[in-house]
Amino acid sequence: MDKTKKKTAGFWKTHWLVILTGLLIGAAAVALTALGNPKNMGFCIACFERDIAGALHFHEAGAVQYFRPEIVGIVLGAMLISMLTKEWRPQGGSSPITRFIVGMLVMIGALVFLGCPLRMVIRIGGGDLNALVGLLGFIVGILIGVIPLKLGFSLGRAYRQNKAEGLVFPILLAVLFVLSLVTELFAATEPGDPTKPGGLRAAWWIALLIALVVGALCQRSRLCMAGGIRDVVLFRDFHLILGFAAIIVAVLLGNWILGGFKVAVEDGALILGNAKFSFAGQPVAHTDAWFNFLGMVMVGWGSVLLGGCPLRQLVLAGEGNSDSALTVLGFLAGAAVSHNFGLASSGKGIGSGPVLWMLLAGFGILLLVSVFHTKRRV
Amino acid sequence: MLDVRGLNCPMPVLAVQREVKAKTPKGLVVLADNMTAVGNIQRFAASAGYTVRVRETDDGDYELSLAK
Questions:
Q1: What is the per-residue pLDDT for A8?
Q2: Which one of A11, A272, A274, A285 is CB 3.0 to 4.6 Å from A255, fit for a cystine?
Q3: pLDDT band at B11 (very low <50, low <70, confident <90, very high)
Q4: How far apart are CA A121 and CA A226, in angstroms?
């Protein structure tokens, strides 16, 4: 074998799993959309947790209430595979309340943009150019978050916990999910109206099955949207960002295939199958560039402080990490605050509440967290 | 011995990077408690020219031995 061939072989050996995971998540997102999920939202951690918060009556935004099986599947998939591989490990105690609050802020930022980092790349693959503005904000947020990291930021050590502490969140989620299937306790948006994302959904068992596989793959590959960009900045390590790129490739291809391989230019916008490359007229998105940008700055910065994007927090919660479980509860609380105080955006634009003030306050809180958890090391 | 147990991503590999940059040691022993950290440290150590041996301890932790 010559040198380049050896290098290529080494590349695949190190990175195949994260690339495969990215491709499969992208494919899963396109498939779930074809099966009924909202457009460019086959898989969105923030949106689906927001829907769950609505189902639980934490907020009463009628268009976005549904106990999404995808969230349950990811947590349980990660839990089962980590138990099989003996990586399941109950631990917690690393600045829990700070994580809860940062989790709230990440969700509030995500709902200003309308999507978590995962949906951001899915939107990019669907031709939504607003998501590129979001990506720019996400990168800036990560660059800001990396500064305290380099100066010695840490939320502190987590410690071994009782098994029950690691199990309580996945079990609670599973029980609530079963209740959502067999009772009328929880709210659910009426299906069918394309302007109400909560009512757009794939059959629950398909969504659950796909999410179980995705959760397991994410656990094995450690895929993380925030980690991808962070590691490039910190270590010149391109491992995780390959997964990030693979999602975009798979979504682009998937949209192109399902749209009958169409290639055209309409109204000055490039069209590749189901993907139309434009700012205006994108599904569940708005065109307010500043708020798309600022929302994702908050998500990027917060995610770096938390040690992972919303998707990664779900996977870690499945692995028995109660700090991440609490972060996910923070996401739910953040979703409730977003909708109860008019901070969440919609297809029509940003919310009617004090969105800018909330973002500024959020940045202030992230700054305080960044400063007070940094021990200067020379 | 560098104990990075209980630290979330990317603190374990960051701590190793800090140690390597500050002292450029011939060898370094790191104690980690999850496979994500082990993988990250392995990739970083390889890029910094170290060979890595991983051993599971009796408590279910991972002891990484880095050597040049």
A1: 85
A2: A274
A3: very high
A4: 12
Task: Give the pLDDT of residue A1.
Answer: 53
- Measured between CB atoms, does A89 come within 8 Å of chain B? yes
Give the max Cα distance, chain B: 31
Taking CA–CA distances from A15, the nearest residue in chain B reads: B43
Q: What gap in Å lies between CA A348 and CA A287, rounded to an integer? A: 9
Say if the Cβ atoms of B8 and A89 lie within 8 Å: no
Distance CA A254, CA A48 (A): 21
Longest dimension (CA), chain A: 64
Q: Shortest Cα distance from A158 to chain B (angstroms)?
A: 4
Domain B2-67 matching CATH 3.40.50.2000: the answer reads no
Chain A residues touching B8 at Cβ < 8 A:
94, 155, 158, 306-308, 323
Q: CA end-to-end span of chain B, whole Å? A: 16
Tell whether A16 is within 8 A of chain B (Cβ): no
A144: closest CA of chain B, how far (Å): 15
- Nearest residue of chain A to residue B11 (CA atoms): A154
Q: Is the peptide bond before B10 cis (omega within 30 degrees of 0)?
A: yes
Distance CA A29, CA A182 (A): 26
Res. A378 pLDDT band, cuts 50 70 90: very low
Q: Which residues in chain A are closer than 8 Å to B9, comparing Cβ atoms?
A: 224, 227, 307-308, 312
CB-based contact A307 B8, cutoff 8 Å = yes
Structure tokens at A190: 């009426």
Q: What is the pLDDT of residues A112-155, one digit of tens each?
A: 999 999 999 999 999 999 999 999 999 999 999 999 999 999 99
The domain limits of chain B are 2-67
pLDDT digits (tens, 9 = 90+) for A250-280: 999 999 999 999 999 998 899 999 999 999 9
Chain B residues within an 8 Å CB radius of A159? 6
